[in-house]
Amino acid sequence: MSITKRLFVGLSTIALGASITACGGSDQSTSCVDCDDQVTVGILHSLSGTMAISESTLVDTEKMAIEEINAAGGVEVGGKKYEIKYIVEDGASDWPTFAEKSKKLIDQDKVPVVFGGWTSASRKAMLPVYESKDAFLYYPIQYEAQECSNNIFYTGATPNQQSEPATEFMFKRSPAAGKPFFLVGSDYVFPRTSNTITIEQVKSLGGEVVGEDYLPLGNTEVAPIIAKIKKALPNGGVIINTLNGDQNVAFFKQIQDVGITPDNGYYVMSYSIAEEEISTIGPEFLAGHYGAWNYMMSINTPASKKFARNFKKRWGSDRVVADPQESAYNMVYLWKAAVEKAGTFDDNEVRKALIGVKFDAPQGPVEVMPNHHLSQTVRIGQITSGGQFKILESTNGPVLPQAWNQFEPSSKGYACDWTDSKKGERYPL
Amino acid sequence: MQLILESLFNGLAIGSVLLIAALGLAIVFGLMGVINLAHGELMMLGAYSTYVTQLIFKLTPLKQFYNSYVIVSLVVAFVVTAVVGIVLERSIIKRLYGRPLETLLATWGVSLILQQFVRSVPLAYASGLICTILIGLIFHIILPKNSLTYSQARIAKVSSWVFSILLGLLSANWLSSSISKLGRASARNVDVTAPSWMRGGFDLWNITFPVTRIVIIVITIIAVFSVTWFLKQSVWGMRIRAVTQNRSMSECLGISTETVDVLTFGIGSGLAGIAGVAVSLLGSVGPNVGGNYIVGCFMVVVLGGVGNLLGTIIASFSIGIMTDLIGAGRLLTIWPDMPAPLATTVDFFATTSMARVLIFALIVAFLQFRPSGLFPQKGRMVEG
To answer: What is the reported pTM?
Structure first.
């Protein structure tokens, strides 16, 4: 290697090193001043890989909630004040890794609780670990339900708290009311289950589903799907969209080009597009379409505004808050309330105490139900050109969660109740 | 008629994305025999440079030319990815010629490094680094080496690199201070917004032709024609073909094979950058964007026959048209009174997922009969 080459390699390494250190910020953390002891909890989300983009926002929110609790005096158990410490583990967007890291957090770090997961696949991978070790996982994402574990606490929406009210709105009260439906989704468990429910529901409402199609994960060629939509819905209609992440960008960019727009009578209702995604895709492609969530950043209450303000203050003024983050924020506070109610960090006691715990969340009051899900308010919003939701309607107070869907034939007539040892995971109503 | 036209256009649109993505690979894989798994990541860099160009055109002095940023970004993306490709070739691949398995593993490693690089390094600094390398390379070429003594040459070399590092740092600082989005590292996907003239579509014979797709088709056609012209007509193209056919003989005849390698790899990588521009207009730009295309690229090159541009072109358009015919369920519309069992089968495959499965199966079946693709290479180099 000649001298210049060595020099070049050296200098470029230095330049690279300098640029990496330049971007690494300092990690500020508020500690509890007059706490007597410490308790360490586990945080398990993907910090690398495909899902890192979404899941890292949850880590940020959970850290913020823990800092808030610490600043307010920590968790009080048995007259002692505990400061919350956390161990963050990386699930690396790889489902077996989630299971492995869960084992590590439970066996090695002996944490009393793990906050974690995003995709249904990661939850399904972690579930056996928590059940065999009788540990407790808090899972914050809106999902397809059809599951009710004693060892998981679900703070996201079940289909009857998101997709069902949304389908009903689109069929009865949207500008495309009464028109046929087309279902588009990514090819994995959530869209497929969600769409089975939607098909049953549209049938029972008296509507018509004229087509459904799934895009393989990682594929962004949407031209065939668009051709199908144009053929199936020649005069406009409702498109229910459960596409994942960046597939949405390709979809919305290209449907606009061929004239599938609200102006021409096509309305898209998306279940995976929150404020974060709107800012990535660009509001100019989304304005006029719909979304359904429990929390929307535009909710005009002091609690909601405070949540958004604190998050921006902690993580940067250009950041936004969205439903998954609110759900993650709630679960930390609900755990704290349950621990204080139980008077111990012991899993089994906390699990019993958790049922019935209420919390004034940014979305409004929520309460933990016997089926380990939350009662939540459902909101339908139309996307504005400013990148926010204009809330069109919200339910009268919180909606009770259904772990087993009542439109899907295989689970119809079943429910879940962990307060009664005879009922448990699945019992006939 | 309208149906056939619409199907043809859709197939052309899908095929041209495949073709522009595979064109660079056809050169690198076909002419040099290098299995470059980092090809997708070079596309990703091209897409990111489109994003950076777009942001620069939003600054005040250039704002009035905003509508033409796509054309500028084609040049920028080509240069950026060509530079990265040249660095890659000089540092890694030149040590691995003739060892396809090692190249495969090494370039896969490079692809992971590049993905993590854009996640953890702010784009402003990444641009600065590329500026440094680019200016350094230009100095390396234009320095009058013959008229200088050995020590003078060394001083000139060192000072030229110092100068380019300074320029690189300056540009990085300027970018990060004037465009705050580029100053921070982010794993978030970013979005390239097409200028207003490229949005929407125009209607002709009751079909909507999206302008973005037409632009991509035009870019592809221009790229294919220039590559063909370069390889067939120019002196360096002739040298590249000579080296492909017989390396040691070309070397004997005085062709600098090292320069040919650098040039071929640089052009192949630069074409990946242009593909990146095209891809960024269709979807979002993220660290994983390249991985979505790499399998399709190899599929096209293998189906077309390694080392044959015409094969690549025909392969990508036939895959495009098949995707549309099967995936969009057009066969049923074209032939409505198909016998019932056939109709159910066609209907079963008329979803995007199943169409992909069917196309892969058809390609596998086709390769059973013609293992070397549509247009197999003939002649001496097949053995060598």
So the answer is: 0.79
